[in-house]
Amino acid sequence: MPPTRPDLRFARTCIFLALLLTLAFRLLAAQGA
Amino acid sequence: MLQPALALLASYLLGAVPFSWLFTRVLKGVDLRQVGSGNIGATNAMRVLGRPLGVAAFLCDFGKGLVPVVWFAPALVGSADPGWLRVLCGAAAVAGHVWPIYLGFKGGKAVATGCGAVAGIDPWIFLAGGLLWLVVLFATRFVSLASVAMGLAFPCAAALRRSPERYGFEVVLGTSALALLILVRHRSNLKRLAAGTEPRIGRRSGEAAP
Questions:
Q1: Residues of B with CB below 8 A from A10's CB?
Q2: Residue spans per domain, chain B
Q3: Rounded to two decimals, what is the model's pTM?
Q4: Distance CA B116, CA A25 (A)
Q5: pLDDT single digits (tens) B10-58
Q6: Which residues of A touch B50 (CB under 8 A)?
Q7: B148 — contact with chain A (CB < 8 Å)?
Q8: CA separation for the pair B41, B98 (Å, rounded)
């Protein structure tokens, strides 16, 4: 299988999901506090 | 004194877990250090794993910067404001990623884990840096240039967001150190950029870095 090239869709998805993950962790941390 | 030391140690040990390397090793039987750019980061992992698993590897690398800041520092210090300890825990996680004890202290370029640490301290700083990263990436298609620009944007955004009720100078200091580290870890990319040999994403020619 040829290597997949990183692309702009990969970049967008990473930033979007990272923000969602941040929100989820901060909400969980706030509930635990 | 013991609890902050434990928080820092836990942060380093979590940051040192090379998720992108583990994903490619376990799922594809490939050593990430011997393919593509040889870097153990998420961008190189995506070359081997494809997009969905590459994104998962990125999120794990991001999460290992986020979790120490959001959970380890407050959990081990208690309800007192652990502002400075959050920054140190984030720095320890990034140090773990860059110099992992499990891989002979040869690690990644501090981008995904650094983003996680910054997002844990102040999501707005990460949002500002992340948007700049996307803009530079869309404009130039150089991941390395976008990452360096994002790293430099973090301390600027932190300085703008700094206020007595939010956080102090420690966040500006921490993000400045991260920017410097990202810059130093991308020096080979910067040399290629200057020489005009750095590959752009989304093109077939020159399957190398970051």
A1: 46, 51, 54-55
A2: 2-195
A3: 0.91
A4: 11
A5: 999 999 999 999 999 999 999 999 998 899 998 899 888 988 999 999 9
A6: 4
A7: no
A8: 10
